[in-house]
Design a protein that fits this description.
Elements (H helix, E strand, L loop, with lengths): L7 H11 L2 H8 L6 H11 L2 E2 L14 E3 L2 E3 L3 E3 L12 H11 L4 E3 L7 H7 L4 E5 L5 H13 L4 E5 L9 H6 L24 H9 L8 H8 L4 E6 L2 H10 L3 E4 L13 H12 L5 E4 L5 H9 L4 E4 L1 H33 L12 E2 L1 H8 L1
Parallel strand pairs: 4-11, 5-6, 6-7, 7-8, 8-9, 9-10, 10-11
Antiparallel strand pairs: 1-12, 2-3
Helix pairs in contact: 1-13, 4-5, 4-13, 10-11, 12-13
Length: 364
C-alpha cells in the first residue's frame, strides 16, 4: 500500500502492521465464532441506495445535534478501551482529534488516560461511558469526577453483565494494563493462568445483578443525561423509554459480547419505531464507509458512533490518524449525500434506501 491510506480498510491494514499481535487481536476480535462480527459489516452491503437526481446539492450541510450539542457531522467516537495499547498518547490523542473534528467523543470507563487528563487536554463536548461495578462507590466516584471535569453525558453500557468469550484474547493470554482511573480505588491486576486476565478482571468487578430498577440509583447520583448503550430489541427500547433514559444506543458491543445477535443495522429500525421519537436513537456497529452512515441515518439514527476505525487510525498515525479516519467518513458521507440528492442530514429519508426485506417482498 503506497502513500496515504484512502479508506478505513487501509487504515486497518496499517494498524495490523503497527501493533503487536496480542493488541491487534484484542481490538479486532469478536465473540466466539465471530458470526456477528462479520454480519455487522456485511449487513450494510445488503442495503441499497435510492438516489434522487436533479436536486441542488451545491451546498451540503453535514451538521446535526446530539442531546442539544452541535456536531459537525453525525459521526461520534464510540467508547473503546485502553488506547495506550494502540499509541503512547492514548485517549488524549483521540480526544484532540475529536475536538479538531468538532465531534463528541465518549471516553471509555476502561481508558488508559484519566478522566482528568483527557478533560484538560483540549476543549470539547465529551461524554463518559459507565460500567456498573459491584463496588458502586467506585462508579459514583468516577461519575463525580467526570461531572466535575465537564463531561456532558453518561453512556451506560448495559450489555456486559459478564464479558463475552473472546477466544483470541484467551489464546493470547491478553494482559490488561493497570487502568489509571482506578488507581487507589481498586486493583485491575488479577491473576488468571488459564486465559485472558481481562476476563478475570471483569468477573470480579462487573455487577451482574444490575437491572432496570438500578437506573433510579444512577439518576439519584448524577444530573447528567443518561444514554443506554446495548439495546437490540423493541422490548428493551420500550422499557428504556419507560424508565426515562435520555437516549438509546443500538449496539451489540462491536459483536464482542453475545455471538449470533443480529447485525445492529438490521435491528435499528425496530428500535426506532418502538421509541417513536421520544428520545434520540444513536447507532454503532460495522460503520466503515460514508454510505454506512447514510444508511443508518435513513433508518432513523440521529448519529452513528465509530469504534474500531478510530483505534486503527490511532495505531497507525496517532492523533493525525484519528482525524483522517473521521474526515474520510465525513467526506464519503458528503459525497453520498450529494449523489443521493440530500443537501442536509434531515433530507435523508427512509425512501432513500431499500433493505433486503423490501427487495425480497418486491420479488414475491
Amino acid at each position: 500500500m503506497e502513500g496515504e491510506p484512502v479508506n478505513v480498510k487501509e487504515f486497518q491494514e496499517l494498524a495490523r502492521q503497527a501493533l503487536p499481535k496480542m493488541y491487534y487481536d484484542y481490538y479486532t476480535g469478536g465473540a466466539e465464532d465471530q458470526y456477528t462480527l462479520k454480519e455487522n459489516v456485511e449487513a450494510f452491503h445488503r442495503i441499497t441506495l435510492r438516489p434522487r437526481v436533479l436536486v441542488d446539492v451545491s451546498r451540503i450541510d453535514l451538521s446535526t445535534t446530539v442531546l442539544g450539542y452541535r456536531v459537525s457531522a453525525p459521526i461520534m467516537i464510540a467508547p473503546t478501551a485502553m488506547h495506550k495499547l494502540a499509541h503512547p498518547e492514548g485517549e488524549v490523542a483521540t480526544a484532540r482529534a475529536a475536538a479538531a473534528c468538532n465531534t463528541i467523543m465518549v471516553l471509555s470507563f476502561m481508558s488508559t488516560c484519566t478522566v482528568e487528563e483527557v478533560a484538560s487536554s483540549c476543549d470539547a463536548i465529551r461524554f463518559f461511558q459507565l460500567y456498573v461495578y459491584k463496588r458502586r462507590d467506585v462508579c459514583a466516584q468516577l461519575l463525580q469526577r467526570a461531572e466535575r471535569n465537564g463531561y456532558k453525558g453518561i453512556v451506560l453500557t448495559v450489555d456486559t453483565p459478564r464479558l463475552g468469550r473472546r477466544e483470541a484474547d484467551i489464546k493470547n493470554k491478553m494482559v490488561a494494563p493497570q487502568l489509571k482511573n482506578f488507581e487507589g480505588l481498586l486493583s485491575t491486576e488479577v491473576d488468571d493462568e488459564e486465559g485472558s486476565n481481562l476476563e478475570a478482571f471483569a468477573k470480579e468487578t462487573f455487577d451482574d445483578a444490575l437491572s432496570w430498577r438500578d437506573l433510579g440509583w444512577l439518576r439519584s447520583i448524577t444530573n447528567l443525561p443518561i444514554l443506554i448503550k446495548g439495546v437490540l430489541t423493541r422490548e428493551d427500547a420500550l422499557k428504556a423509554v419507560e424508565v426515562g433514559v435520555d437516549g438509546i444506543i443500538v449496539s451489540n458491543h462491536g459483536a464482542r459480547q453475545l455471538d449470533f445477535t443480529p447485525a445492529t443495522i438490521s435491528v435499528l429500525e425496530e428500535v426506532v419505531h418502538a421509541v417513536g421519537g421520544k428520545v434520540p436513537v444513536l447507532f454503532d456497529g460495522g460503520v466503515r464507509r460514508g454510505t454506512d452512515v447514510f444508511k443508518a441515518l435513513a433508518l432513523g439514527a440521529q448519529a452513528v458512533l465509530v469504534g474500531r476505525p478510530v483505534v486503527y487510525g490511532l495505531a497507525a498515525k496517532g492523533e493525525y490518524g484519528v482525524k483522517r479516519v473521521i474526515q474520510m467518513l465525513k467526506d464519503e458521507l458528503e459525497l453520498t449525500m450529494a449523489l443521493s440528492g440530500c443537501s442536509s442530514v434531515k433530507d435523508i429519508t427512509r425512501s432513500h434506501i431499500r433493505t433486503e426485506r423490501e427487495r425480497l417482498q418486491s420479488m414475491l
